[in-house]
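Design a sequence for this backbone.
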């Protein structure tokens, strides 16, 4: 890289100074926009003519469209827009304003097509390099600008008109290509680091699930005599363990409030599924309900006590947490309160068992509802669970507390590494495409 170059004020506040020989141009002056046609997912085939759908720009592609993930037959092509190699494809709608207008350059050879909710841009080859533009548009300042120009709430949209006037730093073409090549090399290393850490997290997550599943069905003693549990998902269990329905290990199994709580003058925590995780209960983020509603729900049995196990039965079924302290709060109908029999079941063991992969899979077969899967209290009560002697339950719970904590720490470290690498990637792109890093002209 060469030494610092002469700079000038770009005239754009967020861009600041740029190299003296760079221009700042509106995106619309660098090429031509067209709109992607409709089409339908019902046209999809396992093979045939490649087609790019707008959702894939969020999930499958990173700045380049390098291979097809969807296909249509020849008869359906009339409903789609041809996708030429080198075109820039924008997403025109989505749920996240920070991602709206995401762009990728097509590297697909024709014939290929693109579906609806997309905007196409053909760059003037004498003025702009498509890959460089993709990097500029992916930089944090441009993401923010696109978000500001989007419309809508639940689903946000952006138009070609909003994209046309985006101000872009525009170096000479040779320098654009040099910057794109530089970023290809540098971001590839970062992306590989991120991918390795994501694979590591996936392996740790699988290992965590396996540790829990083995402990709550086989115990900690590898030499323990085993017997058939009579339950397919449990398989063999230690001879000294009992197998019984959940209600056999509990003195109370009930769900929370089936009313909408009053929130005016809310003072008491009203906990729902979103507030519960293996880490415990997030009271800070919970809804607050009025004293009148709170006292009514206490009278109708919706108040957990210390030692109860909460089990999510709506949406994400099978998330569990132990109520670790006496506290004045009530729960929504999305949570089931399980109060273990003190001489039969340990709260922590029961929480680990009911939240284990096997039990959650068993519970999912009894859920009803497509949009919002729901498990009834009655069906949960009937599901079988393996119950060791009480002392062994406590030993297993201690083991899982310690073992999963170590795995969770490793996962957290890997995620922190991904976050730092992503920040580094974003900063590198922004610096390169605004001229803060001189990568040379490439000539």
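Sequence:
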């Amino acid at each position: 890289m060469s030494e610092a170059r002469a700079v000038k004020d770009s005239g754009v506040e967020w861009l600041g100074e740029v190299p003296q020989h760079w221009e700042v141009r509106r995106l619309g002056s660098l090429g031509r926009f067209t709109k992607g046609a409709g089409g339908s997912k019902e046209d999809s085939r396992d093979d045939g003519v490649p087609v790019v759908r707008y959702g894939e720009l969020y999930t499958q592609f990173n700045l380049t469209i390098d291979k097809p993930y969807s296909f249509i037959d020849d008869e359906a092509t009339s409903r789609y827009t041809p996708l030429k190699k080198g075109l820039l494809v924008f997403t025109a709608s989505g749920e996240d304003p920070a991602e709206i207008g995401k762009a990728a350059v097509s590297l697909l050879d024709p014939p290929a097509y693109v579906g609806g909710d997309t905007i196409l841009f053909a760059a003037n080859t004498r003025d702009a390099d498509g890959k460089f533009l993709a990097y500029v548009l992916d930089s944090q300042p441009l993401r923010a600008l696109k978000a500001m120009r989007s419309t809508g709430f639940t689903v946000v949209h952006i138009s070609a008109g909003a994209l046309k006037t985006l101000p872009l730093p525009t170096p000479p073409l040779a320098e654009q290509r040099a910057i794109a090549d530089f970023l290809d090399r540098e971001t590839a290393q970062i992306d590989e680091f991120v991918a390795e850490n994501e694979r590591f997290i996936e392996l740790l997550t699988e290992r965590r699930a396996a540790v829990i599943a083995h402990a709550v069905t086989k115990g900690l003693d590898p030499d323990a005599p085993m017997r058939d549990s009579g339950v397919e998902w449990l398989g063999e269990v230690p001879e000294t363990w009992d197998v019984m329905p959940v209600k056999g290990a509990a003195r109370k199994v009930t769900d929370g409030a089936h009313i909408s709580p009053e929130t005016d003058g809310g003072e008491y925590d009203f906990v729902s599924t979103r507030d519960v995780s293996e880490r415990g209960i997030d009271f800070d983020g919970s809804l607050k309900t009025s004293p009148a509603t709170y006292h009514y729900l206490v009278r109708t049995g919706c108040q957990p006590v210390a030692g109860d196990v909460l089990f999510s039965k709506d949406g994400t079924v099978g998330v569990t947490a132990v109520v670790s302290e006496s506290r004045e709060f009530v729960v929504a109908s999305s949570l089931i309160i399980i109060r273990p029999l003190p001489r039969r079941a340990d709260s922590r063991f029961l929480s680990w068992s009911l939240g284990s992969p096997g039990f959650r899979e068993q519970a999912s077969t009894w859920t009803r509802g497509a949009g919002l899967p729901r498990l009834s209290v009655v069906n949960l009560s009937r599901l079988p669970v393996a119950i060791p002697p009480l002392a062994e339950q406590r030993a297993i719970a201690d083991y899982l507390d310690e073992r999963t904590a170590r795995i969770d720490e490793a996962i957290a470290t890997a995620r922190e590494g991904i976050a730092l690498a992503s920040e580094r990637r974003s900063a590198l792109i922004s610096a390169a495409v605004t001229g803060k890093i001189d990568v040379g002209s490439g000539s």
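The chain has three domains: 23-170, 172-225+389-443, 242-387.
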